[in-house]
Structure formats: structure tokens, C-alpha cells
Amino acid sequence: MSINPQMSQQGQQGQQGQQQGQFPSTSPYQQQNQPFGMGGGMGGGTLEQLQQLGQQQPFQQLLQQLAQTQFGQGQQQEQQSRQAEQQMQQQLQQLAQTVVQQVIQQVQAQSLASGAAGGFIDVVHPLQGQPQQIFLRIDGQFRVLNNPTPQIHQQIQEAFAFGHQVIGVWDTQSPNVLRSVRIQRI
Question: How far apart are CA 38 and CA 34, in angstroms?
């Protein structure tokens, strides 16, 4: 069977009629049904027609996606800042726990001891740049109280003058330095 490349005029016209029914013409001179009354090209739509177009479901979905994307980015940044703040709070809590644990360990490691003083040395006028000091002789060893107040000076002197007991308290890790002094009047 051979195919004839030339068709009759009648065959061509019939084929054109079928094509017009299936595919819209792009010719600006032909009057056809354009969607939303945009005859003669794309720029012929009115504002009302564009609003109607925006109300159609595919366009509504696109607008919602665009709004969600922009809104989602703001939420994402806010969420990231919240996460960073939570991480900082957690780090601060961990640091505070670490510091508290170290202080507790130091306090537990400190072992305090005390003893009654048999005598004292009062440095009334220390050398320039040196702190005021009172030395108490406890268990045959001198232990120093640095920078005592004038009131403590007077109380220690009176306690020894009247025969009251002077008790010194120190940390066993640094036994030569007194932490506090207590006077017992018996």
C-alpha cells in the first residue's frame, strides 16, 4: 500500500476542522473562547477576573504553600532560637551543679580541729605591709589568726587576764592558720 503525500482539499479541510476542535488556535485574529475573558492575549484580564483566578483551587494551594513557607521560616528561626536558649540553660545548670559538687567535696574534705590555747602573742604594731595577727599556743604549736578585729583583740586579752578558756579552730589541711576563735567563760 502506498501513501500519497498529497491529499485532496476536502481531506485537508476535514483534518483542519478536527484540529480546531482539539487544539486552540494561537492566532490573535481568530475569535475563540479564552479562559476568563482574556480575548486576544494574556494581558486582557481585569482585576475581577484575576481575583476569580486566585479563588480556584490550584492557585489557592499555591498561595497557601507560599504563605506557609514564609511563615514556616519565621517559625523555624524562632524554634532555633528557643533551642539555643534551652541549650544555654542546660549548660548553666550543668555548670552550677559542677560548682556545687566541687564546693561540697571541698567542705567534705575539710576536717576541722580545735584546741584550748595556753598562751598568746599579740602583734600590736605589725611591720608595714603585714597584717595584724594574734598567735595562740595550742598543743605546743603556735597558730595564727590573721586580721582580727579590735574587738577580738580585746576579748582575747581579757579572757587570758580573767582566766577564761580561749579555743582556736583550724582546718587540718592548714593547721597553722586559725579559722575562728571562741572564748568560754566558765
Answer: 5
